[in-house]
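Action item from last meeting closed. Structure (385 res):
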């Protein structure tokens, strides 16, 4: 019995190795697939890393100085001094400012009202209007916070000067001193590069795997393989193996570019990153095989792949927090492998999280991957029968 079991395992190993060799040769011969798998992720990571930036600077701003006093000129100059806002031009009326905002020539307008200096000297309240272009909510929020912070500090400084002029003690103040963990500079790249890596990996591995099996079905080579005594599970595992290796290489390549070019920190155990990547690739490759098992042509596989990829990315927390989604939609994200991997990679790289912190996410990735691979095998067996 032991000899027979050993012969069976040896036969399975030979069959699996044969499928892997055939898949590697077929993939390497196709230059377009090799470019899509290796060069495209690196180029897209570099491009998206520079293109996606939530740190807004030099926002074109109009200054509408209706007071034309020393105080209004001083406040306008100091407001623009930190570089967040850039003076586009000085305009003489709010109508002109509104027209330029509508035409897209500026993103904000600071309206300093007439009588501003007299109001400040007479200790009367004064209102400075900040007109924003709300088509970009993130930019508008940054401009509004910058203006609010400056005028709050200017009001406190003016109050201290008046009290000092009258020889009165300054009132006690409470100052909030922020301490930012994990990303002290609030840079975009350490947050976005792991998300970009997650997106590119699911796009390349899912689509390429789905279209590969469909291409073989169209060419008739799949039927030739099916007449051999290779088990469906071994056939699918053999087709996954080369892309699993290529996917791991892509992660290493993109992570190296992120550390070198964008200064992404690596604070956690690399074994956690390796484990999460392998489990994530099992999920994405399994989804590709499942899609190919229900598709008749490459076009169908391509469309079905993107039909899965777009909702998976949107519901993963790559761009927007999962916690900000409605409760019913958050429930859907629990079956999304993209969500778990982006949480694993961000926590591992930025926070130094280990297996003890991420075990349930890794377990979820493993469970989802096994179920997907099981469904793909069953579906493939029925399709081949």
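Sequence:
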């Amino acid at each position: 019995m032991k000899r027979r079991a050993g012969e069976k395992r040896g036969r399975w190993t030979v069959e699996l190795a044969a499928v892997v060799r055939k898949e590697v040769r077929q993939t390497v011969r196709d230059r377009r697939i090799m470019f899509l798998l290796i060069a495209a992720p690196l180029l897209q990571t570099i491009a998206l890393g520079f293109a996606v930036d939530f740190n807004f600077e030099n926002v074109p701003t109009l200054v509408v100085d209706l007071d034309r006093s020393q105080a209004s000129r001083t406040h306008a100059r100091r407001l623009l001094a930190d570089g967040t806002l850039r003076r586009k031009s000085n305009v003489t009326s709010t109508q002109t400012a509104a027209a330029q905002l509508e035409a897209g020539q500026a993103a904000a307008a600071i309206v300093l009202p007439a009588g501003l200096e007299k109001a400040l000297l007479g200790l009367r309240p004064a209102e400075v209007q900040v007109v924003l272009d709300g088509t970009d909510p993130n930019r508008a929020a940054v401009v509004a916070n910058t203006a609010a912070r400056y005028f709050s500090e200017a009001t406190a400084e003016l109050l201290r000067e008046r009290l000092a002029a009258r020889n009165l003690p300054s009132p006690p103040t409470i100052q909030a001193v922020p301490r930012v963990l994990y990303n002290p500079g609030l840079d975009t790249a350490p947050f976005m590069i792991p998300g970009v890596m997650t997106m590119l990996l699911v796009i390349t591995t899912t689509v390429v795997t789905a279209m590969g099996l469909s291409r073989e079905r169209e060419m008739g080579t799949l039927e030739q393989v099916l007449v051999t005594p290779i088990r469906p599970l071994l056939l699918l595992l053999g087709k996954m193996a080369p892309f699993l290796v290529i996917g791991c290489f892509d992660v290493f390549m993109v992570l190296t570019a992120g550390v070198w070019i964008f200064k992404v920190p690596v604070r956690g155990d690399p074994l956690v990153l390796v484990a999460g990547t392998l489990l994530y690739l099992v999920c994405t490759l399994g989804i590709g095989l499942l899609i190919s098992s229900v598709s008749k042509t490459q076009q169908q596989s391509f469309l079905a792949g993107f039909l899965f990829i777009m909702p998976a990315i949107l519901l993963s927390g790559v761009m927007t927090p999962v916690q900000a989604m409605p409760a019913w939609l958050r429930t859907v994200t629990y079956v999304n492998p993209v969500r778990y991997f982006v949480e694993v990679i961000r926590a591992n790289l930025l926070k130094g999280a280990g297996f003890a912190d991420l075990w349930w996410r890794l377990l979820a990735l493993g469970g989802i991957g096994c179920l997907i691979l099981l469904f793909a095998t069953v579906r493939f067996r029925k399709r081949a029968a």
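Note appended to the action item: The chain has a mean pLDDT of 80.
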